[in-house]
Specification:
The protein has 9 helices and 9 strands. It is an alpha/beta fold. It has one domain. The strands form 2 sheets. Strands 1-2-3-4-5-7-6 form a 7-stranded mixed sheet, sandwiched between helices. The longest helix has 38 residues. The chain is globular.
Length: 285
């Protein structure tokens, strides 16, 4: 987890959990653990997730991918904004890349959105463009408002949505093409995210606006079990919040802790075997 402490927003205590709920953003080491866990459980293809510690690493990896990617190959880059003077150092952006019919399709579905977190989105866009995308590449980014209020769970959205992109590429690509506006050569703003992405939004302002504009209720019956009432930190009024992301954070946290325990057990057993062998080889043994 990130060493930078994060503040729990007012109202999240309504979930009955105080510490651990987004108190720390999941750092790059934790992200690698989650990526390995997904690959080990065959939820995603091998080597399909690349965790990048900063923009410089991302640009290097993306440039190499443009040269080496095979037709149909899919790759999810998780980009930490560390050491960047104008960005949020704890923030993580997902960049999904798909080579389709000889051209690269890129999708930047950032939790901050395009209007409320322009710096976050555009820092990542600049890094993509600095990686020299081949001619004919198309870049799609979330042009709508931000979906998070706690400032901690960008990693959760990056993983959840990145995995969906890996597994449902054609379906999501079809939705995006029906809900996009061209902003430049090969650059498109996504006007409305797919419902399975929108249902991770924490604020009901976003969810209601989405339903009004698309006619689709993004939550659905299953997702509504995560709705709770809490205090809005800005207005101090009681409002409904969508806690789906927060609950997913706890699931990811348990996976990371389980991995730490498994590694500690493995190291302890290895040390025990070494100690036993050493005893056996000594004259006293």
């Amino acid at each position: 987890f990130s060493s930078d402490p994060q503040k729990v927003e007012k109202g999240l205590d309504k979930l009955g959990i105080h510490e651990g709920l987004g108190m720390h953003a999941i750092a790059t080491k934790g992200q690698r653990v989650l990526a390995q866990d997904l690959q080990r459980r065959k939820k995603v293809p091998p080597k399909s997730i690349q965790v990048c510690d900063n923009f410089a690493v991302f640009q290097e990896k993306l440039s190499a991918h443009f040269k080496d990617a095979k037709e149909g190959e899919k790759k999810l880059f998780l980009v930490r904004h560390r050491n960047h003077p104008k960005s949020l150092t704890r923030h993580t952006s997902p960049v999904f890349v798909w080579k389709h019919e000889g051209k690269f399709q890129l999708y930047l579905v950032d939790s901050g959105g395009g209007q409320k977190a322009t710096n976050v989105i555009h820092d990542t866009l600049r890094s993509i463009q600095a990686s020299n995308p081949p001619k004919g590449s198309e870049i799609h980014y979330d042009g709508g408002p931000g979906r998070l209020t706690d400032g901690n769970n960008c990693v959760i959205l990056s993983f959840k949505e990145g995995v969906r992109m890996l597994r449902e590429t054609e379906t999501i690509d079809g939705w995006v093409r029906d809900h996009r506006e061209q902003k430049g050569e090969g650059l498109f703003a996504i006007t409305h995210l797919p419902p399975q992405f929108a249902n991770l939004a924490q604020t009901f302002t976003y969810l209601r606006k989405y339903q009004d504009e698309t006619g689709i209720d993004p939550l659905g019956e299953r997702a509504k079990k995560h709705v709770y009432t809490g205090t809005d930190p800005k207005s101090t009024q009681e409002k409904p919040f969508n806690g789906k992301v927060a609950h997913t954070y706890l699931k990811f946290e348990r996976r990371i802790i389980a991995d730490c325990i498994a590694n500690a057990t493995e190291i302890r057993e290895a040390n025990f075997k070494k100690a036993s062998l050493f005893t056996f080889l000594t004259p006293e043994g």
